[in-house]
Specification:
NTF2-like_dom_sf; alpha+beta
Length: about 120
């Protein structure tokens, strides 16, 4: 088991790849940070949202990325809590006309931190 500072650095790297994958629409990069059986759920403007990782990646693949649309990069890590081999990251992901807050569950799988679940919601500013 790595120390907390090393784990925090490794998780931060995963989250940076997650942000960059979203921002440029890099499906392969996103696939590398998620566990293949990850599930995404929450709400978007009050409407329930439930997707498998494959459904989510298909959506990313078939849309213009924030980068392509000339958007400013504003994604940020708000907090990370680590307990043994699990962690929760709270992030803010402002993209398109949305102000998402994501709660990402991470676990060490085969020696690597990966996102195992994503809860998301849109918050009006």
């Amino acid at each position: 088991m790595k120390n907390t500072n090393e784990n925090r650095k490794r998780i931060t790297s995963v989250l940076e790849d997650y942000f960059n994958g979203i921002f440029v629409g890099d499906v392969d990069l996103l696939k590398s940070v998620f566990h293949p059986q990850a599930f995404l759920s929450g709400d978007i403007k009050g409407e329930p949202y439930f997707k498998t990782l494959d459904q989510y990646l298909e959506g990313v693949k078939n849309r213009k990325s924030p980068s392509e649309l000339g958007a400013a990069f504003g994604m940020e890590i708000l907090s990370i809590e680590i307990i043994n081999t699990i962690a929760i990251a709270k992030t803010r992901v402002p993209i398109f006309e949305y102000n998402y807050y994501d709660l990402l569950s991470l676990s060490i799988i085969d020696g690597q931190w990966v996102i195992t679940n994503k809860l998301l919601t849109h918050v009006n500013e």
